[in-house]
Amino acid sequence: MPVNQQILLDNRPQGEATVDNFKLVETATPALQDGEVLVRHHYLSLDPYMRGRMNDSKSYAASQALGEVMIGGTVGEVVESRHPKFQPGDQVVGMGGWQLYSVVDGNAPGMLRKVDTTHVPLSYYLGAVGMPGVTAWYGLVKIIQPKAGETVVVSAATGAVGSAFAALAKARGCRVVGIAGGAEKCAYATGELGFDACIDYKAHPDLKSMAKALKEACPDGIDGYFENVGGYILDAVLLRANAFARVAVCGMIAGYDGQPLPLANPALILINRMKVEGFIVSEHMEVWPEALTELGTLVAQGKLRPRESIAHGLQNAPEAFLGLLKGKNFGKQLVQLV
Amino acid sequence: MPVNQQILLDNRPQGEATVDNFKLVETATPALQDGEVLVRHHYLSLDPYMRGRMNDSKSYAASQALGEVMIGGTVGEVVESRHPKFQPGDQVVGMGGWQLYSVVDGNAPGMLRKVDTTHVPLSYYLGAVGMPGVTAWYGLVKIIQPKAGETVVVSAATGAVGSAFAALAKARGCRVVGIAGGAEKCAYATGELGFDACIDYKAHPDLKSMAKALKEACPDGIDGYFENVGGYILDAVLLRANAFARVAVCGMIAGYDGQPLPLANPALILINRMKVEGFIVSEHMEVWPEALTELGTLVAQGKLRPRESIAHGLQNAPEAFLGLLKGKNFGKQLVQLV
């Protein structure tokens, strides 16, 4: 059996996460039992939710246990199989974690899924046609429920979720406004991702400035907001929200490292008769087939062409992950493992 | 025509509202035109929403104009009619405002409604079987959508909305926990209104203490919350909320006088995958018939027997209103005008 490399959560962050929270180890891959499949990972997905798992606090998911392999989505190829449904050479997506190989129970529902790479590159199954894409789909379609002509806004606009959000919202006839960090990302959002406008939060670092920028970018107000960051950007969106606006709360990356960030004026939820709803996409597996079909079609049609930020080698995953938390990535953050 | 007395909004509050914001005037009631009805008001309803109208700021409704009669719900009797649908002696509910008489266009839809006082006292049409009751109904039935066995919490528990909420939630098999100010109100909530438990917020004046009290009163967590007050009570509820909890935001009375009160940890909306939704009941007229039918039936069956706080004489309306904002009322606050 091949030698595996794994990255474990070694200790929990005190405030900001650091590379010292992780540990790289080598282990043998175990011999397969009946029904098991050995997968060699080609790409590992890095996603903001992983930061929440590193804390030992109440969250929507169990904490990542210390000393265990970091959780994470992976795509790769079956290299050995003792399950009739999987053959060596099959391309598969799963939750293999931060390691080179994983052994998967082929009978466990939803743990390993064969994918078709005729029209969709393998790595996209971790992004636009994977969990981030479905996340955008759920927040837009099920919570925001946009009508044609409405204005919708998304933070972290050039990331995996934001770029899928833009394509899905444009397909529904919305005005789509992004919020991203830096002029380069904003130019990419409007030039390549289909955003109608994009606000550089680094140029608008406070509530008043951001609210003014939103007013200019959203002359008809905001009907829907997909929240990835929290903090003063959410406060500014609430100030510009229309009556009956909907906010899908997917992430609050700004508050992951320390003290909770308050919401300045929750009375606006009443004043604007808003709906603010948190969700985690893995609790809504019933929508995945419909969402993946639409997302795959948008990719095949060239309407969703997300950029990828690719780090190389498992040993570089921690640094790439910490960069993601600071917005250093440009598009979907992956680690290539082959 | 009889001489009318009216209370006008004379000037806007700077911070806390005072009696000096109001002015009492006498005017003649105008002669009726064809289609008009003259109503003598028996009771005027005082409600927290009126405080929001006194500010000159963006809210869900237009500001109350200076120099005009304060808005308000009224019940009374038709004393003169030039509309075939209304006869002298008819008992009616409407939005007559803070005055002894009103002239109403009998053709305007929804402006004046005849009511039956066989099983329901006339004043109840301003409370349990009126706007406050329907408010409780909408928040509970349409936003919280409780299942039998769930725990629901309401602040301002012994007020007009809270008491209706308790009866409606008990009818749906919920555990109902109230939050009210003072031991006497709490004893009334559990002894007469059907609450399973009631927390005295004066005995729990900070987040930590309130969260502990909620934990004891809600051993299975909180599935639904009807928000009338805002501030640290909402923060505490979020700390005790179950996954997929729903919050109906009806009022934030704690923040009406000055600076907005922040929400300490909005990330809990995500962590608990909550839905937080603001509403104003006058925008959902489609539910009123169904809601009023249920509320009237609960009253007729003796399952909803709300207390009323009755001030006497129009001149005492401002002081009674200011007392309502401070929780000095006990049950539905009315002003008797006859």
Automatic annotation (TrEMBL), chains A, B:
<dbReference type="InterPro" id="IPR013149">
    <property type="entry name" value="ADH-like_C"/>
</dbReference>
<dbReference type="InterPro" id="IPR041694">
    <property type="entry name" value="ADH_N_2"/>
</dbReference>
<dbReference type="InterPro" id="IPR036291">
    <property type="entry name" value="NAD(P)-bd_dom_sf"/>
</dbReference>
<dbReference type="InterPro" id="IPR011032">
    <property type="entry name" value="GroES-like_sf"/>
</dbReference>
<dbReference type="GO" id="GO:0016628">
    <property type="term" value="F:oxidoreductase activity, acting on the CH-CH group of donors, NAD or NADP as acceptor"/>
</dbReference>
<feature type="domain" description="Enoyl reductase (ER)">
    <location>
        <begin position="17"/>
        <end position="335"/>
    </location>
</feature>
<dbReference type="InterPro" id="IPR045010">
    <property type="entry name" value="MDR_fam"/>
</dbReference>
<dbReference type="Pfam" id="PF16884">
    <property type="entry name" value="ADH_N_2"/>
</dbReference>
<keyword id="KW-0560">Oxidoreductase</keyword>
<dbReference type="InterPro" id="IPR020843">
    <property type="entry name" value="ER"/>
</dbReference>
<dbReference type="Pfam" id="PF00107">
    <property type="entry name" value="ADH_zinc_N"/>
</dbReference>
<protein>
    <submittedName>
        <fullName>2-alkenal reductase</fullName>
    </submittedName>
</protein>
